[in-house]
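Hey,
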Amino acid sequence: MSRTRKTACWRTRLLAFVRTNHHRKFRPGRWDCALFTAGAIHAMTGIDHARGWRSKYGSLARGREMLQAMGYSDHVEFIAHLHEEIPVAFAQVGDVAVIIENDEPALGIVQGERVWVLRPSGLGTVDLTDAVRAFRV
């Protein structure tokens, strides 16, 4: 598991990323929960976990197939490989949260008591208490 470190100005960079992208609509392979989360991590750390993934798949099923070809069952397992899992109660601003959306796991970024998540029409939030897993960034 690699340990990433947040840059000195990570909060400012994270908020700028969210402001810039709050209106973007869901599009598998171009703007989905995994790419939103990877973009937020990139803004905070300078490390781009999604390099080589953007625009390489056009459906969530194809994205999952690509992850499985690399040895990961899904996007959550990929994040688990890269970041330390922590109890949801210990999640802080900038950490990754996993929620269940339509019976499927989805990734989001903790913003305090809420989690930024991608909705069909852009970013929304859910309660942190809705998270089933969390990972330290």
